[in-house]
From TrEMBL:
Pfam family, one: CARD
InterPro entries linked to this entry: CARD, CRADD, DEATH-like_dom_sf
Annotated ranges, domain CARD: 16-105
GO molecular function: death domain binding; protease binding
Name of the protein this chain belongs to: CARD domain-containing protein
Length: 165
């Protein structure tokens, strides 16, 4: 059970922030009904949020609602930058009303949550974020803002006696 929890944490470190996921979830039906995908997918492809194969998979669905649902299923798995890139793509494709809806929801979520406290044992070593400058302290929250590589995470977990596989 501990292995599964840690595996979710490690994999989640490279996923979308939970607040961003919740904003997408709370607006899922509106987005599924109103998104106009043709140009939007090209923006997401350009920003490496989706791959060519993902675009083809989305476009293979029958009907715009099903295509939109498929994109909404993929977005939370596409990294911590996916939400911001999606919002920019909405703005650039003249769907700013949907971006506004997401940002309003996000703002409400962030005001409703209490501030996170750091109650970790700081004597333990944590995986380092590869893109964090060395002069800054790494974030120790469950959802770091930068990527934790699979190798670093796996090595670190192995060093403390936990296997993901």
């Amino acid at each position: 059970r501990q292995t599964l929890h840690l595996r979710r944490w490690v994999l989640g470190a490279c996923g979308m922030h939970p607040d961003h996921q919740e904003a997408l979830k709370k607006n899922r039906v509106v987005l599924a009904k109103q998104l106009l995908l043709s140009e939007l997918l090209e923006h997401l492809l350009e920003k490496d949020i989706i791959t060519l194969e993902m675009r083809e998979h989305i476009q293979a669905k029958v009907g715009s609602f099903s295509q939109n649902v498929e994109l909404l299923n993929l977005l939370p798995k596409r990294g911590p930058q996916a939400f911001d890139a999606f919002c920019v793509a909405l703005r650039e494709t003249k769907q700013g009303h949907l971006e506004d809806l997401l940002l309003t929801t996000l703002s409400g979520l962030q005001h409703a949550l209490p501030p996170l406290s750091c109650d970790y044992d700081l004597s333990l070593s944590f995986p380092m974020c590869e893109s964090c400058p060395p002069h800054k302290q790494p974030r120790l929250s469950p959802a770091p803002s930068c990527f934790v590589s699979q190798k670093v995470s796996t090595d670190w977990l192995s060093s403390v006696g936990i296997s993901l596989y």
